[in-house]
Amino acid sequence: MRPDIKGIGGYIPSSFIDWEGHVSAVLFFRGCNFRCPFCHNGSMVMGQLPVLNEELIVEHIRSRKDFLDAVVISGGEPTLDPNRLKVLLPRFKDIGLPIKLDTNGSNPMVIEGLLSGGFVDAIAMDVKAPWEKYELLCGCIVDTNLVQESLYLLLHLDLEVEIRTTFVPALMNYDDLSIIQSYLVENVRWVIQCFRPENAMDEALRRTKEPEREVLREKFPSAIIR
């Protein structure tokens, strides 16, 4: 990722879906170290959206603290900008709002630092594929040892954790999902997200079919199909 692709590129004042059970303000960090061909947020990943004013966002959230009950930090990949996280997250804590972090798990040291500092209250992490197929689903070279380190850390935390996998039928099969499931511990919240082709970064994937939700529900009854 180019060093200039940083900053907040998107802001949703209130969301009912980004942290289940919460009314959340959502901040999207620009830039990502992955190039997942199925990604629906390419403009954020590539840093094509303008940088928003952080002060205005923080003050807007502060003015709505009686309506909100959480802040979600998403992207892009927020852990690529740890200095900004270390400045912003305490400000939201001071407002009195819990924080959820969305991450691809590629920076376990940053994640561990945020956890040890008490900056986050919940984490959603993507597990994109079986380890041997990771680079296909990420569109780049990936050190899967780092992702595995993050996964191990989260699976052994006393914290609200969600593991997410986007099922892309053109790139994966049900056996791949079964392998991913084998990486997880019992009772962890695992969400299978159904790929939506219309905004995929890879234009070829825009012409492929969405997953069959009912088949997913039948094959993976313990997973949440989203």
What would your notes on this structure say?
The chain has 226 residues and is an alpha/beta fold. 31% of the residues lie in helices and 20% in strands. Helix 8 links the parallel strand 7 (189-194) and strand 8. Helix 4 (108-116) packs parallel to helix 6 (144-155).
Number of helices: 8
Oligomer: single chain
Mean pLDDT comes to 95
Shape: globular
* Poorly predicted sequence stretches spanning 5 or more consecutive residues: none
Strand content: 15-25%
Main pleated sheet: 8 strands, mixed
Total beta strand runs: 8
Radius of gyration, Cα only, in angstroms? 17 Å
Structural class estimated from helices and strands: alpha/beta
SSE series: EEHHEHEHEHHEHEHE
From the N-terminal CA to the C-terminal CA, the straight-line distance is 29 Å
Walk across the major sheet and give the strand order.
1-2-3-4-5-6-7-8
Helix content bin: 25-40%
In short:
Helices cover 31% and strands 20% of the residues. By secondary structure, it is an alpha/beta fold. It has an 8-stranded mixed β-sheet with strand order 1-2-3-4-5-6-7-8.
What's the SSE blueprint?
Elements: E1 8-15, E2 24-29, H1 42-45, H2 54-63, E3 70-75, H3 82-95, E4 99-103, H4 108-116, E5 122-126, H5 134-138, H6 144-155, E6 160-167, H7 174-182, E7 189-194, H8 213-219, E8 224-225
Parallel strand pairs: 2-3, 3-4, 4-5, 5-6, 6-7, 7-8
Antiparallel strand pairs: 1-2
Helix pairs in contact: 4-6
